[in-house]
Amino acid sequence: MNPRAIRKIAIVTIGLCLGYTVTVLTRLPWWTLFFVAAVWIGVGLKLRWGQPVNARYRKMWPWSLLPLSLWGIYVYLADSFGIVDLGAVFFHLQAGMAEHGGAGKMLMALLYTGIMVSVLASVTWLSRHDQRWRLSERFFAIVLLASNPLLYGLGQRSAAIVTDDGAWLDRRYQPPPVEELRNPPNLLLLYLESIERTYANELFEDAYADLNALGERGAVFEGVRQMDNTGWTMAGMIASQCGVPLMPAGLLHDSQFEPLSKVVPGVDCLGDILAAQGYQLSYLGGASTQFAGKGLFYRGHHFDTVKGREDLEPLLEDPEYVNSWGLYDDTLYDITADEIRRLDEENNGPWGVVSLNLAGHAPNGYPSQSCVEQQGEFDGQDILYSVKCSTWLARNLIDRLETEGLLDNTLVVVLSDHLTMRVSVWDQLTALDRDNTLIMLGDDIQPQRIRRDATMLDVFPTILDALGFRLEGKRAGLGASLFSDKRTLVEAHGIEVLNERLQEETALQHRLWEGISPQRRETDMPSSKDQTVETPADLADEVELIH
């Protein structure tokens, strides 16, 4: 090909990718892409990049190729998920990504790979044909490395190895209760994939209307925010059922990159506590239990029945009525209702059923056929359509079960597993003060709205409190019951402090993975002579949390 044509293609390729990166990492409108690209191309042609007056060709490999590749990975993650969580990346690598439904994400990853190869080829060509690029790209390689958020996050986790304390969160951990309940209620826990309470804002019209209607009959909790390591499905479920953030086992400071055999075995979670009370426990999810360790988590924490796509798909009348992730919600909820009927008929003690749906899954959702009949045709893009579908089906399930008398003496908890990832209304969502859905219905739950600064860690003790457990200090795990007046960690310290402490924490990680991750050597533990320095606010809160 003509060198002049190659030169122009290289400059245009880099310009378009630079413009796209700017729009992904900011809230600037999509057309900013072309403005940034035009400026880059104009400057490049004006300065004759790749074709200087005294051109001297040199075959070499630019230093910036690796830094550019790492930036490409970061932009892909940001474009796909909105918020890049390193903990999620490491955990999914460990827990397994088999049977995932992200076929679209795989195609996007291949597209990104192809584009990044063209960018690297363009930079290489320009550097070889233009000595100005050869001299400057080494400097830009350093800038790219220093500015990459991926490397910043890795650096923070590496610093945890040598932190002076590393046990700030672990000192605040409160083991859950063990006493026996009298007349224990049943429990129905409905996780609505990515259906955050932010959708209740008037910007999103009636997408959240059915959950607003449900909330009028029970307790609605506002202000349940998302701290680090709770922002994906398994992390959200563990935070709300165990009261701890999900810290992957083997993030830089041990060698646990082999597939996991257990998930957070070192702490007692909701399943462990309820099983000890004689509960019959079932987990039903539309997606595969092999993905992200869901099956390992629920089976390892005493659930009797754990079923996902691979178990439920053979039960379908129409085996073709599935999406890339698994079962549609209307099918899943029919099976959930059947499971509750079975448990009620067997009458072998109280039951607990946990259900995880799919309709609100980013980026576009998976609305059921029954929603198409109810709402009209789906355009394949509008996440608000899928949100409305998810909330309507959840309310419909609860109404059906109540009509049959299956929710007598039952605590019903409706909650999001985490805040949504990048969707069609991402810019509107991220401009608001976002929080998770948490609604509780039950015989002893009075209609009320409770506004607290909290996280998903506080959901765990709130559920236990609502079930009738007596909590020491109204706390369990790292959370505080939102029915109580006890301060949450967010109220005491602020979410920024929690996230900073989480980056430094090692002791809690060892607690979570006790028996799996390498145990601390005695020399690693602070001795009685060592002094842990904390602020007066820390010390005051220590008294409240521990005593």
UniProtKB/TrEMBL annotation:
One of its GO terms (cellular component) is plasma membrane. Residues 525-534 have a biased composition (Polar residues). Keywords: Cell membrane, Membrane, Transferase, Transmembrane, Transmembrane helix. Gene3D superfamilies: Alkaline Phosphatase, subunit A. It holds the Pfam family Sulfatase. Residues 514-524 have a biased composition (Basic and acidic residues). It is found in: Cell membrane. It is a multi-pass membrane protein. This is Phosphatidylglycerol--membrane-oligosaccharide glycerophosphotransferase. It comes from Vreelandella sulfidaeris.
